[in-house]
Amino acid sequence: MNIFGIGLPEMAVIMVVAVLIFGPKKLPEIGRSLGKTIRSFQEASNEFQNEFKREAEQIGQAVKTTTEIESKQIESAKLQQDNAGSTPTS
Question: pTM of the full predicted structure?
């Protein structure tokens, strides 16, 4: 079992030190607050990822729209150029 790069023996040593420092009555409270902190960090991380994806999609849509508009403008300019070149001048 390897959590965060820490093996089972290291986890046992950390738990023994924590019990000696904080006492067995404080450990559940510390664990709860640590769990809440990790959960809020995960929620913030997910929110950041969703916002990033949303912005990337909006940029992609803007690029697609701009590309479509520019291609239509290029086609229109080519048609105007062809029409100007083919009209007879007296």
Answer: 0.51
Instruction: Give the total residue count for the chain.
Output: 90
pLDDT in tens, 56-77: 999 999 999 999 998 888 888 8
Could you tell me which residues are beta bridge partners of residue 3? 6
Residue type, 83: N
Kindly calculate the radius of gyration of the chain based on its CA atoms and give it in whole angstroms.
32
- Rounded distance between C-alpha atoms, residue 52 and residue 83, angstroms: 46
| H or E element that contains 1 | none
Termini Cα distance of the chain: 91
For residue 90, how far is the Cα from the chain centroid?
64
Beta strands in the chain (DSSP E): none
Angle (deg, nearest 10), helices 8-22 and 27-86: 120
Strand partners, 6: 3
- Torsion angles phi and psi, residue 19, rounded to 5: -65, -40
